[in-house]
Amino acid sequence: MFDTLFRGRRNDRRAREVASIAEYECRAAEVLERNAHEFFRSGAGCEQTMRLNRLCYEKIRIRPRCLARVGNRSLAINALGCSFKMPIGIGPIALAKLAHCDGEKALARAARSMGVPFVLSALSSVSLEDVAEAIPRCPKWFQLFIFKDREMTENLIRRAERARYKAIVVTVDTPVIGLRRSEMKNPTSLPSKVTYANFCPPHNNVCSKNISEYVRNQYDPTVGWDSLRWLLSITSLPVILKGVLTREDALMAADLGVQGIIVSNHGGRQLDSAPATIEVLPEIVEAVGDRVMVMHDGGITQGTDIFKAIALGAKMVFVGRAALWGLAVNGQNGVEDVLDLLRVELDSAMAIAGCKTMKQITENRVRYESEYLMPRVRVLERLDANIEEADAVVEHVVVVDDPRDDEERISPDQVVEVLVPTGEDGLAKFPKGSDGVDECGKTVSPWCKTVNSDVVEVVRAPPRITREVRIVPEVAKVLNRNIKADIARRDYLKNRCSNRKAASMHNLRSIVKSTEDCRCIM
């Protein structure tokens, strides 16, 4: 009886031969040709950025909420007028036939089966028309570069329009091809049956023997924002910019009228020492707000990575290598299994974190590692923000449970500089006895927390070490000035802004600008 009972329970959950993306990567390394594996795996330079893409996820913590009624969860989203079953897509992958004989067709069919978007690369080994025939009713996007040959670039767009692709994804981080040391030592040689299909006759009059060289010579280092204006003027399809890593470029793109941005560093394959995409994602989301749909790729190997990216503002994420490893191991079925792994892991993370829908995955669901490693502080004297004199600022705080190494701990007589956190209305509100920081907006200082007139204490753990330190007078004056200025900004925004989120972001930017000279000296 017990054998029957447990056997039935085991069958409720489908057994997986491969249970993680990391396992798929290991198996792909075994089945791929060495040159093909290095072509897909390698990054630029010493591959620092490629490693950072993974490591930076590990520095972000998820803050679960319990008893949140998380039955009937939904991962569904809407993007560019289409509905998708989950916020995951397959990003552009060049020469997928190096991994499997079905190449991009298998990737596209897996995307259709799982209800996610598929982005076809201009450098694909299957032509865009053949992929469109393989998935005629599936939403698909076409990725290209602005090549030197503008006529050929426009021709690719026209072909995508005729094949009913739903969007054009323009990669803007490749004025030249990044230097990859593994390819410098072992240049990739294409088998006779694998080529850049979109550049073959009859679509291109270049001789097939010279296609690889022709494509390499088409990258244009002179491409500028005027080139993007030209591209926007020749198509009615939504245009998405892929490869944006700074707020300045994001704002330029939004001003020009692009409809989406993919925060991407090309999987670490272009510029080594570029930041990880998850590091710059909040900066870009804050810069463009709701003007542009912000998406994300880079280093995603599990569902919690997707949760963190969504929490920091991404509407959708894309995977490249992860899908490729599945393709190499088991073709279309392997890609479907990779996507299903990510779906199951994301759904589990949502349930345990207390989220039923994508909209509930917000910034207050995550914290950076540094916020848990910093000293916790408690104010002993409350500040009256209406007092005019600068010396009326709170003068004593208590360090509670400093978790750092003994050599770095704050000594009892050491001066600590602190910055003021901001809440939705410009002033942080943490109730006395709070064991966490919840629904309070962003904190200006990433190292330390203090409080103002609306705050009594901020602690995340029972105190074990209590030491009294003081705020230096210069910082006290800055604190007092900032709080009074913030009250004025708060009143102004209450009258002018009906959108509380907009008010919060405005206050945060103002406080950051006014406290640039106030730095932590712990």
What's the topology here?
Elements: H1 2-12, H2 21-31, H3 34-41, H4 48-58, E1 60-62, E2 77-79, E3 82-84, E4 88-90, H5 103-114, E5 118-121, H6 128-134, E6 140-144, H7 150-162, E7 167-171, H8 181-185, H9 211-216, H10 225-233, E8 239-244, H11 247-256, E9 260-263, H12 277-288, E10 293-297, H13 303-311, E11 316-319, H14 321-353, E12 366-368, H15 369-373, E13 376-379, E14 396-400, E15 466-470, H16 473-496, H17 500-514
Parallel strand pairs: 4-11, 5-6, 6-7, 7-8, 8-9, 9-10, 10-11
Antiparallel strand pairs: 1-12, 2-3, 13-14, 14-15
Give me a quick take on this structure.
With 522 residues, the chain is an alpha/beta fold.
Oligomer: single chain
Give me the number of helical elements.
Answer: 17
Assign a percent range to the helix content.
25-40%
Please state the overall shape, judged from the principal axes of the Cα atoms. globular
* CATH fold description of the largest domain: TIM Barrel
Strands in their spatial order, largest beta sheet: 4-11-10-9-8-7-6-5
Question: What name goes with the CATH superfamily of the largest domain?
Answer: Aldolase class I
What is the CATH architecture term of the largest domain? Alpha-Beta Barrel
Flag low-confidence runs. 1-13, 375-405, 409-476, 497-522
- Tally of strands: 15
Tell me the major beta sheet.
Answer: 8 strands, parallel
The average pLDDT value, as a whole number, equals 77
User: What distance separates the N and C termini?
Assistant: 64 Å
What is the structural class? alpha/beta
Please give the domain count.
2
CATH C-level name of the largest domain: Alpha Beta
Quote the beta fraction. Answer: 5-15%
Question: Which radius of gyration do the C-alpha atoms yield?
Answer: 26 Å
